[in-house]
Amino acid sequence: MKSSEYLSSDMLDESLLKSFAPFRLVQMILGSCRVDAKYRFVTSPTTLQRAYSVTCLLVVLICYSTILAHYFARYVAFPHIYYINFVSLFLHYATFACNVIHVRFVNNDSNVKFYIKMQEIDRKLNADHNKIFNDVLFKTNVMSVAATALVSLLLYASALSADAVVTASFAGPLVAQVTSTFEWLNCANLLIYFYIRIRYINAIITNHLRGTADLPVEEYTKNIFPTMKTLRCLASKTHDFKFSDTDVYLQDIFEQLLRFQSLYRFQMFLFCFKFFTATLLTFEFILLGLQHDIIKRFEFIVLPTVTAIDLIIIVVICVRCEAFYREIKTTKYLCITVLSLIYSGPLRRKAIKMLKMIKEKPPHFSVYDMWRMDAATMIKMINLVTTLMVTILQFTLL
């Protein structure tokens, strides 16, 4: 484990640390934060923090065991429904446990390096002087954390019952679901980081091709999300395609994307597997519960809502990945345009190098090379789940 004394030359800027503060705060409370950040340094989780994570795992396990013993007893007379609920309970806890163990005990040094490399990229791009870059990520993270916390507390409130033991034990699934959801949302929001930096590189090249005469005097910094004109205004003050190492910036972003993929592909595997399996189990439980008239009102509210949240997350991740891929296509188009206008010299060599990087190693977010996170994957997954739901409906009602 690296101590802060070895990271003295890797001090992070306040704006970058602030952008991740919302997730870091709640994940510290839940025992699932990947890094420890103090005094603008990032380090691996301490031994005490890891012990706290193990304690959280044990407490949540006790809550799940209590639910199985006290609440699920009402399903014993219906073996198939009891089996479905037992598998669902095991699936949710296993997803939570695997996620916590992975973020706290695996890839500790890589997680630290990931944050440091993000800072290095921003310093090369001079983006660390433009607060708008990290302000967008900060606002998105705040909204994500606030919305998730609010919805989760409302769902927990709807599950309150007269039995104090059962009510208290429901805190276990609440913590497990919220912990996993925060990790998946953090992954989804990190894609904004890469998207804005690639657009910034495109803004540098666009300024060279079109000039800066069409740019407004003001920067439109009041926009919630920076437009291309805003990025071009910012880029025109610090970068010129003739002199900037744009090819180096692009290579650094591609390498950072590979680090991001290696760190978060396990979470995406867990998420896709959980979404696929839990959706089908929830659907079958609701059908059988309505048939036997044993489903409670809060179950009819909580279970579909959790499934809907997972669906929203997968849509957001795939849409943002698709937006990033499209921005890479724009970079490719701009490089080709440069080659069509310049026939020799360092600018042509720079454009060729960038084009070669995009063609030879096109960036993408894949899950262990089994599937890519993009719009096509999202549609295929939803189609598959829908088809299986129709099949379950036929077997249940016929």
From TrEMBL:
Purpose of the protein: Gustatory receptor which mediates acceptance or avoidance behavior, depending on its substrates.
Species the sequence originates in: Vanessa tameamea
InterPro entries: 7TM_chemorcpt (IPR013604)
TM region(s), chain numbering: 51-73, 79-101, 141-162, 174-196, 268-288, 300-319, 378-397
Pfam families: 7tm_7 (PF08395)
Name of this protein: Gustatory receptor
Similarity comment: Belongs to the insect chemoreceptor superfamily. Gustatory receptor (GR) family.
Main subcellular localisation: membrane
Membrane topology: Multi-pass membrane protein
Keywords recorded for this protein, A-Z: Cell membrane, Membrane, Receptor, Transducer, Transmembrane, Transmembrane helix
Residues annotated as signal peptide: none
